[in-house]
Amino acid sequence: MSVPDLLGRDQFEVDEDEPHIVVDVRICATCADKPCVAVCPAQLYTLGADGALTFDHAGCLECGTCRVVCRAGGIVRWTYPRGTFGVNYRQG
Length: 92
Fold this sequence. Notes:
Blueprint: H1 3-7, E1 11-13, E2 21-23, H2 25-28, H3 35-39, E3 45-47, E4 53-55, H4 65-69, E5 75-78, E6 86-88
Antiparallel strand pairs: 1-6, 2-5, 3-4
């Protein structure tokens, strides 16, 4: 089973009012290697054709890997989602 198929088995309650990860893409623009793109298991960090970083917190697996590898300080806030929000893992 592919990674997208496995991730599709999870359910997400997205907190649109208070995202648990806040990224400052202006700071990310100064990062040469952008390790978050390579390490995010949900592939939420992507590079556009112009090299600009985009991020979508909605499918976050809450693993914290991006926070660990971010050396430029582009992740300005990383917390677990508020109660009743976040990922609900399913067996599969």
